[in-house]
Amino acid sequence: MRRPVLLLSALALVLAYAPAAGADSSTPNDPLWDQQWGPKQVNAPDAWAASTGDGTVIAVVDSGVDLTHPDLAGQLVSGATFVGCAEDGPCGDGDWASGGQEAGEPDPHGTHVAGIAAAATDNGVGVAGVAPDAKIMPVKVLGEDGGTFEEVAAGIRYATDNGADVINLSLGAIPGVQVLEITGLIGDAKEAIAYANGKGVTVVVAAGNE
After folding, report:
1. In the chain, where are the structural domains located?
2. Residue 67 near residue 76 (C-beta atoms within 8 A)
3. Architecture of domain 8-205
4. How far apart are CA 68 and CA 172, in angstroms?
5. Interhelix angle for 187-198 vs 149-161, to 10°?
6. What is the pLDDT of residues 136-192, one digit of tens each?
7. Closest CA relative to residue 110, chosen from 153, 152, 149, 150
8. First and final CA of the chain: distance in angstroms?
9. 114-130 pLDDT, tens per residue?
């Protein structure tokens, strides 16, 4: 039985990535690099000398990813869709347009988050990713009108069972919604995060994004 719907809205990225063989630090030639204050603020170019995220899979549990995006198409592993499904279980591949009519119009937030995390870098296209040699697992749990904690939990468990090293949750409850305190509404998500942690997966969640 589905729990009462609690809409979720996508927020901002908090990214972690695992150490791996890296490349020399350099200024990427991506045309939007000069506008990317975030990677500079966390000293990403210096970090690239130690690690570029090679061998790491980052699951972006969000609104799906544009699988044809030129900065992301070569950065992807198989994903799944959990919003707009007729039955329990996944019904798509994590593409931002998947999930059928119930999912509504595609939301670019997940694509944006995936690009921050691991867009192809120094390729003369778009932006530079913080972990440009990592792979993105697109897991769609949010549609045009949000989603439920059940869908978020299902996405977390899917990512854990299918090879994610890091799970990113750039999402949260709509401001002012007090039903978060009702027993059971967030239990699924808490249990799923504990499950992921128990399997050695790092789960990072947006916070303080007003």
Report:
1. 8-205
2. yes
3. 3-Layer(aba) Sandwich (3.40)
4. 27
5. 10
6. 999 999 988 888 888 999 999 999 999 999 999 998 776 655 454 555 567 888 999
7. 152
8. 33
9. 999 999 999 999 999 99
